[in-house]
Design the sequence.
């Protein structure tokens, strides 16, 4: 045994020497800073920075410069327009409801999937993830087929005065659909790696379900939950395709912020369209910052 | 199963499985009801509606010239855009993992912007940038190249949408990649380029394919950012989601459903392939081959 170990260390020492010799001669060694490798480094960094600048930063700058093209007062007029304000209200409403529904769903679904064994678990997880793989237009389509005029339940809805398609409930449903797995997807991996031992111990000592959740599970998933909520909110406020199918574009009634942007742009009102967009840009940047902070703190706490 | 619960519950444990942690009924109940309301019932209505259509009817719709042209536009632009993102994704992941430079964190945080920025905003912004009179479009217009309102414009919008996918797949693999292999190859006399192609790239391949597949799937279904910049000329720059949208606006639900079915099948096929690759990929991430 000892001879083998000695041999090994001898070999690695020889390797080290060899490496030193090689690098001294200015030849290849991985962590050596040669002129060529430095050139490649700066070239790659340069390509990345230019690419991200043209594709990501420039569009953001464009929104802001176009929004203020005609001065601050024109900007304020566009942002303070009653149609814009009603769009802000509807967007907030849909986003808040989507976040609440998906949080409730995400927590219960994650609990069910990770704390128990049952048949069909894989199918359940696949079905939960399904909405994000579907094109937003198809998401809109399936709600039109479910609640629209040709649907079997349409007479019932009409009788009770419930409007879904081309009305606010449709917009909210579409928003919930496109963000459906966002929160459960963040919590499930955390709970899975944590296992069930702690909850089992607490249950055997007589703790009630909600107490177990509050005292044991919640502290573990806190950051994942918050992260999921941020992602969900981001996607919910910006959803365009699915909402567009179900909205009917009734100004002041069923128009969310992204749809309002579309209408203004379509009417060649470019400056107001960018002014309204700037609200969404600010929200997007805020969300990105919150995301980074949550990720950072979450990682630190472990 | 722990012994304590077995003695506590005695006979009932024999009759039905004992779940120590409470809340199975409640959590499954809530999960299944919300899932049914939001996903299953709407999906079922799509199935029911499809069952009413005859095969020849579906075939007639999806082989219309304009629809076929839209498939071509969607597939081609999504493919090119995802290819660009696959290459740029590897470059970006490499730069973010291997190099240190000022503002690296900012660059890293920016990658997710396409997820956070509403697609409609991206759409109008890119349109005004790449139009013949726009800041970037002007440069190309001088050489007689139009970007906005052509297929190139669609590709630009789809590149924007797909940026995060490949980067975020490749990054963790590259972070876990043991530099030992590179060192070994280097000591054996391989050049840097050879090490990259022969040692590093094969390890990254599953992550790149997964990212490519996810981006491709997303691009095929993308609507918001594309409609503004595409110009939407039939046969030329009309994407499939837009055709579904216009069928819906004309209340032609049968045609819309038939075309949607083709898109759904394609999306699931891509997802299936991605899952196959991902199984291999997660093996690598967890250390074994």
Sequence:
């Amino acid at each position: 045994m000892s001879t083998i170990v000695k041999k090994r260390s001898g070999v690695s020492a020889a390797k080290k020497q060899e490496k030193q010799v090689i690098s001294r001669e200015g030849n290849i060694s991985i962590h050596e800073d040669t002129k060529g490798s430095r050139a490649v480094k700066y070239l790659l960094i340069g390509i990345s920075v230019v690419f991200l600048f043209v594709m990501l930063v420039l569009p953001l700058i464009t929104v802001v410069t176009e929004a203020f093209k005609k001065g601050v007062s024109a900007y304020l007029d566009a942002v303070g327009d009653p149609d814009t304000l009603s769009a802000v209200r509807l967007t907030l409403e849909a986003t808040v409801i989507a976040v609440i529904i998906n949080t409730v769903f995400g927590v219960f679904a994650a609990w069910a999937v990770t704390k128990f064994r049952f048949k069909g678990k894989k199918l359940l997880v696949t079905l939960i993830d399904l909405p994000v793989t579907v094109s937003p237009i198809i998401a809109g389509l399936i709600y039109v087929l479910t609640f629209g005029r040709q649907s079997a339940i349409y007479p019932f809805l009409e009788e009770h005065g419930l409007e879904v398609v081309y009305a606010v409930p449709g917009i909210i449903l579409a928003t919930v659909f496109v963000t459906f797995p966002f929160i459960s997807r963040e919590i499930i991996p955390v709970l899975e790696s944590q296992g069930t031992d702690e909850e089992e111990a607490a249950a055997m000592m007589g703790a009630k379900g909600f107490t177990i959740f509050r005292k044991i599970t919640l502290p573990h998933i806190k950051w994942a939950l918050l992260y999921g909520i941020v992602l969900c909110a981001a996607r919910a406020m910006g959803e365009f395709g699915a909402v567009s199918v179900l909205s009917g574009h009734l100004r002041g009634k069923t128009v969310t912020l992204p749809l309002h942007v579309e209408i203004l742009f379509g009417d060649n009102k470019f400056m107001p369209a960018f002014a309204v967009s700037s609200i969404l840009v600010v929200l997007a940047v805020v969300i990105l910052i919150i995301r980074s902070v949550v990720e950072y703190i979450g990682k630190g706490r472990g | 199963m722990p012994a304590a619960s077995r003695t506590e519950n005695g006979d009932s444990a024999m009759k039905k499985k004992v779940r120590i942690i409470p809340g199975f009924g409640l959590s499954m109940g809530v999960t299944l009801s919300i899932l049914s309301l939001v996903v299953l019932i709407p999906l079922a209505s799509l199935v029911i509606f499809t069952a009413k259509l005859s095969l020849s009817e579906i075939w007639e719709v999806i082989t219309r010239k304009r629809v076929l042209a839209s498939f071509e536009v969607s597939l081609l632009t999504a493919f090119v855009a995802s290819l660009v993102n696959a290459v740029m994704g590897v470059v970006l992941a490499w730069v973010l993992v291997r190099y240190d430079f000022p503002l690296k964190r900012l660059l890293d945080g920016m990658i997710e912007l396409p997820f956070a920025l509403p697609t409609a905003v991206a759409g109008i912004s890119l349109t005004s940038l790449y139009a013949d009179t726009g800041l970037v479009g002007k440069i190309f217009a001088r050489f007689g190249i139009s970007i906005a309102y052509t297929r190139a414009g669609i590709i630009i919008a789809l590149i924007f949408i797909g940026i995060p996918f490949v980067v975020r797949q490749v990054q963790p693999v590259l972070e876990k990649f043991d530099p030992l292999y590179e060192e070994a190859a280097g000591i054996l006399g391989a050049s840097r380029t050879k090490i990259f192609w022969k040692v590093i790239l094969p390890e990254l391949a599953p992550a790149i394919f997964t990212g490519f597949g996810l981006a491709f799937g997303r691009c095929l279904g993308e609507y918001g950012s594309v409609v503004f910049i595409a110009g939407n000329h039939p046969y030329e720059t009309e994407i499939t989601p837009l055709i579904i949208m216009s069928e819906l606006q004309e209340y032609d639900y049968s045609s819309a459903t038939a075309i949607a079915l083709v898109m759904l099948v394609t999306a699931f096929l891509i997802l299936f392939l991605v899952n196959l690759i991902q199984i291999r990929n997660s093996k690598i991430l967890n250390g074994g081959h």
Remarks:
- The CA atoms of residues 189 and 195 of chain B lie 10 Å apart.
- Residues 1-16 of chain B have pLDDT under 50 and may be disordered.
- Residues 65-98 of chain B form the longest helix (34 residues).
